[in-house]
Amino acid sequence: MMHILSKKPIGQIVAEDFRTVKIFKKHGINFYFLGNRTIPQVAEEHQLDAQLLLEEVEAIQSLESEENIDFVSWPLDLLVDYIEKKHHRYIKKNAPIVKAQLEELAETNGERHPELIALSEQFNDSVMKFTSQMENEELFLFPSVRKMVKAEHSRVKLTKSQFGSLKNPVLKMKNAHKTESERFSHIVELTNNYALPDDGRDAYQTAFTALQEFVNDLLVHIHLENNILFPKIKTLEKELKHEL
């Protein structure tokens, strides 16, 4: 069991059992974009004991729990519906709230803590990028996925004249995810991992709590697309006689 686990990419491990995300997050391991690495590889990169890391992951997998959602088994149309209704709506609802809190924090404490100004600016820029990407997904990618699923159910073989390949749109979104995940790593660094300074702890508490919740949701969002949605799109498109 552990030998097989050591060979699996961490993105696949999280996709198969989302409870394992707790282990990778605890050790600061990027599972959402750099999910193609194995546990021995990430252990070496983070100067961790690979055997202990494998044991931690295996221990969580062995627990009987209803917490784990088997996203891998979901049909593609259900998965895009879930991402749109849960994660897209979350960003649309909460991004303006976090934005306002960070801007207020920068305005009231930025003179003593200039990193707050950079934090606010970086968050605003990233939200603009994600908003544009979500629009592209909702207007093009997700409807295209639903069209493919209908074709699969109807046993219709699509030709290029009927349906363009999603290779380039998916690649662009993966690249955007990489850029923004790196930006959010920088955002977390600017907060000193959400540490509250002695001066103005109450003012920081609300903003940093909201920011941390936002980042956590975003990482799940990126994981679902990079490690599950995009590979499933590639597989289905090949089955429909398209090359990705």
TrEMBL record:
Domain of life, per lineage: Bacteria
Matches recorded under Gene3D superfamilies: nmb1532 protein domain like
A Pfam family this chain is assigned to: ScdA_N
Protein keywords: Cytoplasm, Iron, Metal-binding
Hemerythrin-like domain span: 85-233
GO molecular function: metal ion binding
GO cellular component: cytoplasm
Main location, first listed in the record: cytoplasm
InterPro entries: Hemerythrin-like, RIC_family
Localization: Cytoplasm
PANTHER family found in the cross-reference section: IRON-SULFUR CLUSTER REPAIR PROTEIN YTFE
Protein name in the entry: Cell wall-related protein ScdA
Record organism: Zobellia galactanivorans (strain DSM 12802 / CCUG 47099 / CIP 106680 / NCIMB 13871 / Dsij)
Gene: scdA
